[in-house]
């Protein structure tokens, strides 16, 4: 049995089933936030497993996170060749934005990816809990969030994070009270609990 508390969520896991006892809600409507990830590699699956943004059931989601983009020197750019639009085609990112036309979805971009790290922007998925991390990385992660929140505020952008769900990772990697005050919501990567 695993019990995890992070921000306003309490996750209880026994066997292979996860239950959320208290869920973060939209403070304006008190409705639950239902966060959906659209992964850019799903377009490469075979047969009926192939999945495009148009296949997302938009009635299930309040937010869609387009996973993933990368941070270049001074801008965000796509990983996949067909993510951006051209004069000849509508890119995958625009296709996700188009889902918003019939629903009040919020669209977010997930930065990074476990196998796309760089020397200039790495080890922040699990600060101070992986080989090569420094004890100060926990505080550096909080400071990074503070700076991002400050930069995002004029644009009314949401700032979220997907964080490790294991208790030892949470304890080692995150200043929970500070992180919860900064982020709009937190996604626990509970798939890591069972591989």
Describe the structure.
The strands form three sheets. Strands 4, 5, 6 and 7 form a four-stranded mixed β-sheet that branches. Strands 1-2-3 form a three-stranded antiparallel β-sheet, with no helix packed on it. Strand 5 (63-71) and strand 6 form a beta hairpin. It has a domain at 33-122. Helices cover 19% and strands 26% of the residues. It has 195 residues and is α/β, with parallel strands linked by helices.
Instruction: Report the count of strand segments.
Output: 9
Q: Uncertain spans, ≥5 residues at pLDDT below 50? A: 10-23
Distance between the termini: 16 Å
Radius of gyration, CA atoms, in whole angstroms: 17 Å
Largest sheet: 4 strands, mixed
**What's the rounded overall pLDDT mean?**
74
Return the structural class. Answer: alpha/beta
Q: Give the ordered list of helices and strands.
A: EEEEEEHEHEHHE
- Please state roughly what percent of the residues sit in beta strands, choosing from under 5%, 5-15%, 15-25%, 25-35%, 35-45% or over 45%: 25-35%
Shape descriptor reads: globular
Overall helicity: 10-25%
H/I helix tally: 4
